[in-house]
Amino acid sequence: MKIKNIIIGVITSIVLINCGMSVFAKGLDINADNKVDVNDVTYLQNELSGFTDNMDYDLNNDGRVDVNDISTLQIEISNNNIKNIEANTKLSVVTNEYKKNVGDTVTFSIITNNAISDITYSSSDSTVAKIVSSDKNMVKVKVNKVGTATVTAQQCSKSVSVKFNVDKAKCIDISEWNGDINFSKVKNAGITCVILRAGYGKDPNQEDNKFNEYYRQAKAAGLNVGAYWYSYATSVDAAKAEVRNCMKTIQGKEFDLPVFLDVEEYRQAVLPRRTLTDIISTFCDGIKSNGFESGLYSAKSMLVDSAYPDELASKYLIWMAAPNNSYNELPAFVDIHQYSWNGKVDGIRGDVDLNYIYNLN
User: Fold this and answer.
1) Going from the N-terminus, what domains does the chain have, and what CATH number goes with each?
2) What proportions of the chain, in percent to the nearest 5, are helix, strand and coil?
3) Tens digits of per-residue pLDDT, 239-280?
4) How many angstroms separate the CA atoms of 122 and 106, rounded?
5) Is the pTM of this model over 0.70?
6) What's the burial of 141, exposed, middle or buried (CB within 10 Å: 0-12/13-18/19+)?
């Protein structure tokens, strides 16, 4: 037995050098073939079937040679295979850099030779590039703000990164008054986002006549879609009614952009600041409670003079109409700038509102 122990010791040293096995793998090369694998399990099973009393096979050191030693060997082989797979993990992606516009979503896969270890994902700036979901080697990222960010996938000690360069999005807002639209031409003209009027007011049958048609066609063209609801509310109760009416229209839709309350009526501008602010908050909170992101659209003068803009901006996205101002001249809290009311876009007859989207957080 002493000779056999010496041989096993020599073999173990070879295995450690060539395969990088753990210290626990010493003495596990049962069949002395310079490898520790399933063949050693078979060899040990045969030895046990002959009722061996060779204590060199007491791999779990419990003073017995039995089926538990086979289990110990199988576990060690499995663990060692995992370590080898992890040590040799290789990660890559098809594209290392994306140039996108605010509101876009990108889904990409991680190419890996490791099928047993989880991949974890992180973003260097989730306000710019937000990880929406991940499943094994697939990850979905939405870009929400102008800027740059890196999304990193890590598996074991290896990692691969994808850079996102995000520019402002060109956006139009439309209603039934814009008539028939060729959304493919709109997309080809460089527009990436569209905000549709869903309807107006608190009474039934006030859905925009083109809303559902526009929604289907814009989605089919690959545009990022949002909606707005034109408000006449002069009280909190009226705002609650507008929420109910809006939800009847948009329920079941999937939006890439928020649902905005459009506040521009003179009857609202002359309300006390507190009242108008509460009306806006009531609508936006009501939309949020139904699972949609929400925001406010209004003219610069109305928002600043007739409400409490800082309070609203702390809770909701702000879409401001200011065609006579550059974005740099607007308050810092503005997320979307409507810069023209008479723009021209291929695929739309006549004038159309033009906007830039800078932030969707």
Assistant:
1) 2-87 (no CATH), 91-166 (2.60.40.1080), 169-357 (3.20.20.80)
2) 35, 30, 35
3) 999 999 999 999 999 999 999 999 999 999 999 999 999 999
4) 15
5) yes
6) buried
